[in-house]
Amino acid sequence: MKFRAKGAIKLFFCYLHSFRIRILSGYYFKNWIERRSNRFFLKQIRETLGNDSKNETPLVSVLIPTYSKANILVERAIPSVLKQTYQNFEIIIVGDHCTNDQVDILSNLIDERIKFYNLPKRGDYPRNLSDQWMVAGVVPRNKAIELCSGDWIAPLDDDDEFSEDHIEILLNCALAKNYEMVYGKVKMEKKLKEWTDLGTYPCECGKISHISVLYHSKLRFFKYDINSWKYEEPADWNMWRRMKEAGVRIGFIDRVVGRHYLEGGGKRE
Questions:
Q1: For the whole model, what pTM was predicted?
Q2: Hey, how many other C-beta atoms are within 10 angstroms of the C-beta on 48?
Q3: What are phi and psi of 20, to 5 degrees?
Q4: How far apart are CA 12 and CA 6, in angstroms?
Q5: Which of 180, 191, 185 is nearest to 249 (CA)?
Q6: Strands (E), the chain
Q7: Contact in structure between 135 and 125 (CB atoms under 8 Å)
Q8: Nearest CA to 153 among 268, 59, 252, 223?
Q9: Is 71:42 a contact under the CB 8 Å cutoff?
């Protein structure tokens, strides 16, 4: 009983700390303003585009930010896209001001579907490593959204991989059920070579993986918030939450659609 009481008290103070931080950062007022504007933009875009799901083979833009993992990107992430069962895609790779050696590796990729752009300046991220983790790659991700030309957007990290049917499964589900965003499960590497399934419905923080998502490009007005660390929210979840609160039609498919590797795990034998 004493242990449970201490746990409850600790949890209470964690919530209190989080609430205080969000009050000081203007989180709740900012959310109220964003929710109203996002709902308005979504309504306008729906009215403008109408039902555009008649195209059964739309172009899918796979967006990959990178900084210092060009080798693993070339060895793992890109091959997982190239061997997709659905082949109408483009790959947009945006470097977060990569160094010359990284640029050389990525510039030598020979496939007309792959486009590489290196930012002239690295993103301005927080100094604290924990805060930095929450928004890592936000700047090149937003640039990739600007550069993509697909009807659908599929985010991928440079050290992770899609299942072979990733695009096909998510796209078919979205088209069949008129979803604007759909996601599945991933194999999450908690410890080296120890995997667990991640992904449930409805989407909640910590229960949806960034690489398991496919969403319509009409939602590209949603951008990753580089300040989400101030509200103690990872940037990917912050964006999915805003989509959810705006009324985006979100679906879930109970299938594994990718592998999320342990950070810094490198290539597997």
A1: 0.89
A2: 9
A3: -65, -45
A4: 10
A5: 180
A6: 60-66, 89-95, 114-118, 152-155, 161-162, 181-191, 194-198, 213-216, 250-260
A7: yes
A8: 59
A9: no
Answer whether the bond into residue 58 is a cis peptide, omega within 30°: no
**Residue 19 has which token pair?**
């609430």
Domains (range + CATH), the chain: 2-260 (3.90.550.10)
CA gap 181, 164 in Å, rounded = 20
Contact 250, 203 (CB under 8 A): yes
Burial (CB count <10 Å: 0-12, 13-18, 19+), residue 239: buried
Please spell the DSSP secondary structure of 36-56, one letter per residue.
HHHHHHHHHHHHHH---TT-S
One-letter amino acid for residue 66 of the chain: T
> Exposed/middle/buried for 131, CB within 10 Å: 0-12, 13-18, 19+?
middle
How confident is the prediction along the chain (269 residues), in pLDDT tens digits per residue? 544 555 555 544 444 555 566 665 677 778 888 889 999 999 999 998 876 656 789 999 999 999 999 999 999 999 999 999 999 999 999 999 999 999 999 988 889 999 999 999 999 999 999 999 999 999 999 999 999 999 999 999 999 999 999 999 999 999 999 999 999 999 999 999 899 999 999 999 999 999 999 999 999 999 999 999 988 899 999 999 999 999 999 999 999 999 999 986 555 44
Number of other residues whose CB lies within 10 A of the CB of residue 172? 15
